[in-house]
């Protein structure tokens, strides 16, 4: 039996509360007094989680079981999953290009490289990926808070125009309302992020833009990690009729599953929403703090080291030209 299954009219969690004991203590006593029943109960809980979350590996299932009060470690969960042939689904490898960096718009330096965030709304990362429909492709733009890994803005449509990325950015700004001058927005060098319409929205909210180096996906690793999770746990193995159907299903995954339910290993196996709620409860959310100002200054200093002026020092045009970011 697990903590979520009823015992008559009461759950185990409720009975433990009434008896004044912990669920961990109950399960340990159960394992010692009735080991075969406890083994069956653990297997039942693992199978329930594996069916509910087919892309969860043994570490996440072990973490979820411990949250429910079962005294198990990841090695035991791995052994039981192997014995019961409970293997998580894996992703497919095909990824078409969604970034066009061959454009004439200004490319800004990478301010996020090496930046250590200390709170929410200090660094946002943005990216675009494809979604396969039955008869065409759709494209998903997202904006993610780098500190909590929460998706705070997204938009899905059948085109790759700048308005797609702008819709996701506007959703994020409306949801978070960051303090002016306190935020860095990091993306790749795609035309959607470099064009005048997008940069105008950033300037209107006093958000500092930042862009990755050429051909370096690690600069935007947090956004890439979310896209990987989305493909593995929602998109792969599912067939979307059209963009409306994809928008409905993917929106539900982002808002209900990824943000509120999925355990994130980088957040000590908490969901992004739970992680942010705990920050609020602890009063540990810094705003436009001195630490962020220092991070901004350091990021700009590092970016200057990777910028090459396209003019000679002391020339008449030197004061009017801006260094163009390049990669070492």
Secondary-structure element pattern, one letter each: EEHHHHHEEEHEHHEHHHHEE
Question: Based on DSSP secondary structure assignment, what is the total number of beta strands?
Answer: 9
Strand ordering within the main sheet: 5-4-3-6-7
The unreliable regions are 1-7, 93-97, 286-297, 303-328
Number of helices: 12
User: CATH superfamily assignment of the largest domain?
Assistant: Ribonuclease H-like superfamily/Ribonuclease H
Largest sheet: 5 strands, mixed
- Gyration radius, rounded: 24 Å
Fill in the CATH topology of the largest domain. Answer: Nucleotidyltransferase, domain 5
* Rounded mean pLDDT score: 78
Description:
Helix 2 crosses helix 3. The strands form 3 sheets. Strands 5-4-3-6-7 form a 5-stranded mixed β-sheet, with helices on both faces. A two-stranded antiparallel sheet has the order 1-2. The chain has a two-stranded antiparallel ribbon with strand order 8-9. It starts with 5 loop residues before the first strand and ends with a strand. Helices cover 44% and strands 13% of the residues. The chain folds into 2 domains: 78 residues, no CATH class; 181 residues, Nucleotidyltransferase, domain 5. It has 12 helices and 9 strands. The longest helix is centred in the first third of the chain and has 18 residues. A hairpin with a 5-residue loop joins strand 4 and strand 5. The protein is of the alpha/beta class and 328 residues long.
